[in-house]
Specification:
3 helices; single chain; 11 strands; 15% helix
């Protein structure tokens, strides 16, 4: 019944209020103003990292813009590779992960937090890795490191 009323309203010159027609400017604005340094990319997306120090602990906030939707309570991991050699694997400190969708660009924004206290991240700083894979709940998205 509601669909009939919506169609009738649109036919008479009203505004179509279907969720598919809503423009999500909030998520798109977040995607265009991601803090940190972009370290890897794919077409229309990438990986940004920001380092934060809280007391004696160091954290790395990782912001991913990609095409996969993630929702889990099991955390995720970043795997840095050079060819087929694994240089490092970082487990997320954040266990609850949920992507935010932008229907303007049809991309997802995912943010995770990784504790990096006392970890050797030379492969990240020296750009020795060629790719970084983000794995979450049996889905993997591969990004290419910016040299």
């Amino acid at each position: 019944m509601i669909n009939f009323l919506k169609k009738a309203t649109v036919a008479l010159g009203g505004i179509d209020t279907s969720p598919k027609n809503h423009k999500d400017n909030f998520v798109e604005t977040l995607m265009n103003q991601i803090p940190g340094e972009k370290i890897a990319e794919i077409e229309n997306g990438g990986v940004w990292v920001e380092f934060i120090e809280l007391g004696d602990y160091e954290f790395m906030d990782v912001h991913l813009v990609g095409f996969e939707k993630y929702k889990t309570f099991e955390g995720a991991e970043l795997v840095f590779k050079s060819g087929s050699i694994e240089l490092g694997k970082l487990q997320s400190d954040t266990k609850e992960i949920e992507s935010h969708h932008s229907n303007i660009s049809n991309r997802y924004l995912t943010t995770v937090n990784i504790e990096i206290t006392n970890l050797n991240l030379d492969y990240l700083f020296d750009r020795a890795a060629e790719t970084v894979g983000f794995t979450c709940k049996n889905k993997t998205e591969i990004f290419h490191i910016i040299q």
